[in-house]
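Contributing new records

If you add data, match the layout below exactly. Sequence lines come first and carry their own label; structure lines follow with theirs. Keep one chain per record. Anything else will be rejected by the validation script.
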Amino acid sequence: MDKELAIHAAKVLKAVAHPLRLLIVEVLQDGERSVGQIIDALGERQAITSQQLNLMKDKGVLASRRDGAKVYYRIQNLNVIRVLGCVYDHCEPKKRAKP
């Protein structure tokens, strides 16, 4: 891996490295959602959620579109889901085999 690729990878990982941002990605795994739907799913304040959505959009993790007064977000690069799946697999406690 060259240095430029490592820098870009670190930026993508930083863009999702927050509990609320991880939950947002989880909500969006099933497809596009409006900001209101994301807020309802997470139970978080609108200002905080919008800030996190914009941060991930700026880093290329999410994409958005406007339809009238509503803004819809979706995952721009589905590889993010695969990477997070690996992280979640690593973090799950290992089930111990009974002797």
